[in-house]
Amino acid sequence: MTNIDRRSLLTLAATAALLPLEACGIRFDKGVRMATTNEQASAAYLAAWEKKDLDGIKARLHPEVHFKGPMQELNGRDAVLAAAQRVFPLLLRFEALAQFVAQDRAMFAYDFVCREPIGVCPTAELVRFENGLIRDIALFFDARPFEAFQRAEARRAS
Fold first, then answer.
1. pLDDT of residue 35
2. In sequence order, what are the beta bridge partners of 75?
3. How many CA atoms are closer than 13 Å to the CA of 153, on its beta-carbon side?
4. Could you tell me how far CA 91 lies from the centroid of its own chain?
5. Domains and CATH numbers, the chain
């Protein structure tokens, strides 16, 4: 290890203090600090679901997000947001259970607590990030209660 005298250390510290933040990997977007890690983006995404905050969900999705679930496959942020909006009336509570993040992937476990006859729907979601936004979503849950609900609603409408 190299011996650094006090003058060299002060010069190094002063130089670092004068560097632009972008040179240190800190980015700002129009004066607002963006989430710097996929872990922070994951937490914000789950919090938006918990609050049924469509704008919060939108802020975390890539414009060309690809969604694949047991009942449908969607492409594009608008299609995914429209599907989320259709789910909101069924959703009583969103209970996040776990979040695991590694590199550009995250896995979430949560319960969708829905109105009857659906009830509690244990769910897992695998996402892939691209440039800090969710680019791919794979959703895993038992679709049978939702399919039964859809059939009952169709019978009621006819």
1. 43
2. 66
3. 10
4. 17
5. 37-157 (3.10.450.50)
Sign of CA pseudo-dihedral 5, 8, 10, 16: negative
Query: How many CA atoms are closer than 13 Å to the CA of 77, on its beta-carbon side?
Result: 14
DSSP alpha helix (H) spans, the chain: 6-18, 38-50, 54-60, 77-87, 144-157
Mean pLDDT, residues 53-68: 97
Q: 134 with 128: CB under 8 angstroms?
A: yes
- What residue type is 29 in one-letter code? D
Q: What is the pLDDT averaged over residues 23-27?
A: 41
84-113: pLDDT as tens digits: 999 999 999 999 999 999 999 999 999 999
Instruction: Kindly state the average pLDDT of the residues 125-153.
Output: 92
Q: Do residues 122 and 108 lie in contact, with contact meaning Cβ atoms separated by under 8 Å?
A: no
